[in-house]
Amino acid sequence: MFSRAQQLEVEEEFYASQDAIRERYSAELRDLRVNDLIEQEYTEYMTKVWDAGFGTDSDAYEAYWKRLERYFSRS
Question: Which domain holds residue 43?
């Protein structure tokens, strides 16, 4: 049979392991949310590129906006 001290030690180990599991899942969930936001922003950006008529060429899209900015900043 366990003494009270041994029982407390076992309970402490159990709850510590549960906390570690909870922290790990929390970190994984946070990472998934961040990745989802990044993917969503990228998809929205590429949709703008596509709708502007550049297909998937985001470099040409950026160059177009830089040319426009230079043109209107001179005026």
Answer: 4-74
